Amino acid sequence: MSPIKVLLVDDSPIALELLQRLLRSSSEVEVVGTARNGREALALMPQADPSVICTDLHMSPIDGLELTKEVMAKFPRPILVISNSVQEDDTRNIFGLLQAGAVDIFPKPASGDYTEYERVKDRLLAKIHMLSQVKVKARTAATSVTSQSAGANGHDASTLRAIAIGASTGGPQAIHKILTALPQDLSVPIICAQHIGDGFLTGLISWLKEDSKLNVKVAQIGETPEPKTVYFAPERAHLEFDAEGKFIYSNFTAATGTCPSIDALFRSVARVYGRSSASLLLTGAGTDGVAGTEAIANAGGLTIAQDQSSCLVFGMSKLAIATGSVKHILSLSEIAPFLLSKINSSVRSA
To answer: In what residue span(s) does the Response regulatory domain sit (predicted)?
Structure first.
């Protein structure tokens, strides 16, 4: 199997050298070029022909955002933003890169110590491998809703009281598109578990809050979900409910898999809201959310998965669909209108 061709873009000579050293220690990756800014990177593109571009945010001339726009217009490639920019303004800019076409973000070690880079080697290589399989091209939204039966337990729209969303790679962009299409007076709460690098959740929430009409926040222990509000699981804990329907955190361990766990959230939503729940499994790799979707279906809730054509990574939703527990398979552009139709049905039936 041919190695994955990677172009590295960073204005820090130290970071550039450490990343080269790290990636060149793997036979799975070939560093085909390095650049100190977006202008140099664009000049290298025709000859280097990388499979994946790894770029920092702050560079001149041509920063990470402008580079992303140019690449997506002229040389569409999966772009991974590797940055330690965790200030609010910087993280908002990073999510602007995602909106411009970058696929994912990865936290750069804060120090220039190679041992810090070695600690993230396996995760970075896994991320690059996953991105190398992403097809970044214009996607045509489906014109009709595709549904498949989830079994005998059909959902009654008149009972919808909570929507749970799970996402991984490509999730911030997908969630942004959904939330910005929902009205300010949304009559149900939305609870999200998004796999994201440490230090970037605050920026994600700021970006979503700025562009949507809903209140977006990190769920706090002891809170009861309220309408018009979008709650996110914290970065380093799972989000669940206690017996009274209030938020609690549960500790992450290696045995519980990814954090925050989509499965943990969906199972807890199924337990508390039952037939009054809806789950939405979006783009991302892995198995997280598959068992949770089954739990929602078994409780009689509404189960939705993003379709292949609109997923950046058709992994979690693909596996959930394969179990037969997904009731509706929708393109990204269909999801918000579909949810509103179900919520409005609930209001009319109440």
So the answer is: 5-123
Give me the sign of the Cα torsion angle 314, 254, 198, 83: negative
Q: What is the pLDDT of residues 49-97, one digit of tens each?
A: 999 999 999 999 999 999 999 999 999 999 999 987 655 566 677 888 9
176 is a catalytic site residue = no
90 is a catalytic site residue: no
Domains of the chain: 4-131 (3.40.50.2300), 146-349 (3.40.50.180)
Q: Which residue is catalytic, options 168, 261, 310, 346?
A: 168
Examine the residue annotation and report whether 195 is marked as an active-site residue of this protein: yes
Q: Which position has the token pair 């706090």?
A: 220
HSE value, Cβ hemisphere, 13 Å, CA-based, for 269: 40
- Ramachandran angles phi, psi of 167, nearest 5°: -155, 155
Q: Tell me how far apart the alpha carbons of residues 175 and 107 are, in angstroms, rounded to a whole number.
A: 20
- Dihedral angle computed from the Cα positions of residues 291, 232, 103 and 109, in that order, rounded to the nearest 10 degrees: -110
Name the nearest CA neighbour of 161 among 191, 196, 200. Answer: 191
Q: What are the φ and ψ backbone dihedral angles of 108, each rounded to 5 degrees? A: -75, 135
Q: Out of 268, 288, 310, 317, pick the active-site residue.
A: 288
Q: Is the pTM of this model over 0.70?
A: yes
Q: Which residue in 56, 83, 155, 195 is the catalytic one? A: 195
Confidence of residue 16 (pLDDT cuts 50, 70, 90): very high
